[in-house]
Structures are given as C-alpha cells and as structure tokens.
Amino acid sequence: MSADLPVIRLRPKSKPQAIRHGFPWVFADEAVVDRRTRAIPPGSFAALEDAERRPMGVVTVNPNSKIIARMMDPDPAAVIDRDWIAARLARALALRERLFDAPFYRLVHAEADGLPGTVIDRFGDAAVIQPNAAWAERMVPEIAEALRAVTGVSTVILNGQGRARGLEGLDERMEILSGGVEAPVPVPMNGATYLADLLGGQKTGLFYDQRPNHAFAQRLARGARVLDVFSHVGGFGLAALAGGAAQATCVDGSAPALALAQGGARAMGAEDRLATRQGDAFAQMEALAEEGARFDLVICDPPAFAPSKPALEAGLRAYERVARLAAPLVAPGGYLVLCSCSHAADLTAFRSASARGIGRGGRRMQLLHTGQAGPDHPTLPQLAETGYLKALFFRLDG
C-alpha cells in the first residue's frame, strides 16, 4: 500500500465482505468520518481498510457525497494513473469489438467497466466522456489521452451535465477536448440511421442502451402503423421503419430532437413514412385518442420518472398513467411496449404499474418479452443500479 495515500477506515459494524465480494461503494455512514477524512479533497485517492486495519484496496473519496468512497482497484498497491486508465479502457474496448462490427457503442459503463462514475459513448471517430464522479472530473486530461491512445478516436468531447454530477457537487460544463464536430453524426444501428447531436443533444447525443429492444420491436413492426412516444431522435420509430413499418409517428416535446428524427428518416430514404408531433407526450396521447387514432404498435420510452427512492411512488403513478393513456391507442391484437430507465423502480414494481395502467385503459394483455439494456451496458450483480433499463412487450386484446 502506498504510504502517500490517506486512509479511509470502515466502521466496526459495516460489512467489509460485501466490498471484498465486488460491491463498489462505501456510504458515508459506513466509514469513520473525522476531521482528516473531511479534509480530503474530492476526487482524491485513499487506502481503504476494514475496522481491523486490514487493507482492502484503493478507493476514490468524495467527503461531500453520500457515496464517500468508490472502489478503484482491490490491489492496495495500485497506482491510478494514465496507464491504469488505459488498461481499463483496453479491456472495455476488447469486449465491444467482440460484440459489434462498427465502432458505435457505449465504451465504458461506469462501475461495471471498472471506471466508477464514468460513462464514455463512442460515435465512430468521436467519443463523449461523462465524468460523473469527482475523480474522473479531476483526471479528464488523463482519461482523454488514454482514450485517444487506446481507441484511435480524434474527437473527444466532455459532456458534464446531468443529475449525477450534482450529487457529486460538480458543476455543469461542456467542452471539446480535441478534434471537432461540425454536424450531427450519423449512427447506423439495427439497419436504421440515427443523427446524434454530440454537443446539444440529451445525454451524450444518443441512447445506445435500447439497441436490443429496438431490434425486438422491429419484429413486430413489419407492415405496421407505429407510434413512438417520448421518441427523442426517433429511437423506436426509425428502427420500426428500418424493419418494414408502413408508417411511424414520433411524439416528443423537443423540436430539435424531432428534426434529428426527420433527418435520420431522410438518410434512410424513409422520410415519406415518418410523421412527427411536438408537444407534451401525455397531452398528445389524449389528443390522439380523441381523434380516434389507432396503431398496430405503440412504444412509450419516457425519461426516468423515478430517478431516486423518494420519487418512487410518484414515478410509478406516472408509469401507470403512461400505460393507461397508451393502451386505448393500440388496435385490437396490436402491441404495446412500455419502458423505464428508473433504477429506483425495479422490474416487479414497474411491471405492476404497467399492468394496472393497461387494465385501467380497458385492455387485456399478454406479456410477450422483457428486455433490458444491451451488452455494451454491462451490469454488476452486486449493484442493482447498473440494471436500470426495463422494456415490457405486451400484446393487447379487447
């Protein structure tokens, strides 16, 4: 263990075996937090010890966060530098290159890829880093340098936005670290073409996590009339068109996102089969019902209504409302896809809320398939938060 590192020690009643078995976090109430601990600058590294002073590894520390320490390396002698980061990136890249034929994927999925609180999405020759933990914010230059060396990308963008940064006490910022992007980047996925705005879009510009669920929806979309609610840049809608849908309608509150969806359809030669409706998704579903609109396939992929435990009950009510409004829009024998990216709402709770909503919408249902995020979003079994995405595929009768 490096003598230069400060020490973080677990309380006697904490459970060090969980960390030894792969749980990556230490909460503030599990550690001895004294004056010296509080004085450790956020993002610094420390030696973690159990209550008997036995070494457990190297952690990154943020005294201002409820997660006071995140495991970086179980080797107490590890040195967290550019070479260490490059080794983690190379391991992550090897997995993605085995999974995907083209360099469009999530390259780093935070703790599950051994880089806590850090997300990196790749868009061909460009990559977007989201440093959502204090250590990653502090070491952005080293991460970017290692990223260019390991992957060969020339454009690297820092996207410092989102709720997770606020929880770490980090300010929002956006910066081009190298290279440049002049226009939305075309991204091929499941036979569709998406346009990703790496500087002005949501998150990193595109949601890769739904890729396998887009593919499953394509099976249901052949010859179908499709409604994609909360569509962002056309995730399910463009996938449906690529799968042979007769027509797709994308609903979203963002005019720029819908413009990117239209651009993607144009790039696919399917612009004449795409319609868009801008506005509040709930209001748009109510308006469609009043118009008597019916679709063979309806997909609702809303933002996280339950991003934390305090928001769980309100979030589940919102998911139930989505299902209640969407169900009447499905033609008899058609399909309804309901999604949740809220880690606070587990699969059982989300499925129950969805079923209640469908029932209140006057429909009977079969659950055909349950989807999750793609393999470029690996999960840690010890950390439920990494398995956040759920997609329920129903067939509706009545």
From TrEMBL:
<comment type="similarity">
    <text>Belongs to the methyltransferase superfamily. RlmI family.</text>
</comment>
<dbReference type="Pfam" id="PF10672">
    <property type="entry name" value="Methyltrans_SAM"/>
</dbReference>
<dbReference type="GO" id="GO:0003723">
    <property type="term" value="F:RNA binding"/>
</dbReference>
<dbReference type="GO" id="GO:0008168">
    <property type="term" value="F:methyltransferase activity"/>
</dbReference>
<feature type="domain" description="S-adenosylmethionine-dependent methyltransferase">
    <location>
        <begin position="171"/>
        <end position="395"/>
    </location>
</feature>
<dbReference type="InterPro" id="IPR019614">
    <property type="entry name" value="SAM-dep_methyl-trfase"/>
</dbReference>
<dbReference type="InterPro" id="IPR036974">
    <property type="entry name" value="PUA_sf"/>
</dbReference>
<keyword id="KW-0489">Methyltransferase</keyword>
<protein>
    <submittedName>
        <fullName>Class I SAM-dependent rRNA methyltransferase</fullName>
    </submittedName>
</protein>
<dbReference type="Pfam" id="PF17785">
    <property type="entry name" value="PUA_3"/>
</dbReference>
<dbReference type="InterPro" id="IPR029063">
    <property type="entry name" value="SAM-dependent_MTases_sf"/>
</dbReference>
<dbReference type="InterPro" id="IPR041532">
    <property type="entry name" value="RlmI-like_PUA"/>
</dbReference>
<dbReference type="GO" id="GO:0032259">
    <property type="term" value="P:methylation"/>
</dbReference>
<keyword id="KW-0949">S-adenosyl-L-methionine</keyword>
<feature type="domain" description="RlmI-like PUA">
    <location>
        <begin position="10"/>
        <end position="72"/>
    </location>
</feature>
<keyword id="KW-0808">Transferase</keyword>
<dbReference type="InterPro" id="IPR015947">
    <property type="entry name" value="PUA-like_sf"/>
</dbReference>
<dbReference type="GO" id="GO:0005737">
    <property type="term" value="C:cytoplasm"/>
</dbReference>
<keyword id="KW-0963">Cytoplasm</keyword>
